[in-house]
Design brief:
This protein is mainly β. The chain has one helix at 90-97, and strands at 15-18, 24-26, 34-37, 43-45, 51-53, 56-64, 67-79, 86-89, 99-103, 107-112, 118-124, 130-131, 136-137, 143-144. The longest helix is centred in the middle third of the chain and has 8 residues, at 90-97.
Length: 160
């Protein structure tokens, strides 16, 4: 079980749920399973209106720390090396994995819509943000897809 005492808080292992994010955003290329170069002109815009370049778009997955038979999928995963916090799109994650969120004073739980079982749990950090830590990404060797696909979609606006 994850407790506050065993959270590392490393910027590259923590994932922040964001209601305003249209896509998942991450800094470390090891977090992506399959990807293609991002050829679009869109950027990620953060709270201070700064635009950050997108390098790749792809897919990844990780196993639930509460049930090793459950694998979460992350579609529309954008690699943005200069992002300081990994962002988990609340709507994308819930829709793609048939989940719902419960936010409490200092804990955030992600539960199965089918069973109501807790599958992922995060905590509020010193920065006041809910975050999920030490996610075990599966076989994420940095594999470049042979076709150079252009990503079609509008820029993600994040509050981070």
């Amino acid at each position: 079980m994850l407790t506050k005492s065993n959270i590392t808080g490393n910027r590259n292992t923590s994932w922040i749920p964001d209601f305003g994010a249209s896509f998942h955003v991450f800094a470390k290329p090891q977090n992506i399973k399959q990807h293609s170069h991002f050829d679009g002109l869109d950027e990620i815009f953060i709270g201070n209106s700064e635009g950050l370049s997108i390098f790749y778009v792809g897919f990844s997955s990780f196993v639930s720390p509460h049930d090793s038979h459950i694998t979460f999928k992350l579609h529309n995963l954008l690699h943005v090396p200069s992002i300081t916090k990994n962002v988990l799109s609340v709507s994308q994650f819930a829709t793609n994995n048939f989940l719902f969120y419960q936010f409490h004073l200092d804990v955030c739980c992600i539960k199965s819509q089918g069973t109501n079982k807790v599958l992922l749990q995060g905590f509020v950090g010193a920065d006041g943000l809910y975050s999920f830590h030490n996610l075990n990404f599966q076989d994420n060797s940095f594999v470049l897809l042979s076709s150079s696909k252009s990503f079609s979609g509008s820029a993600t606006h994040s509050s981070l």
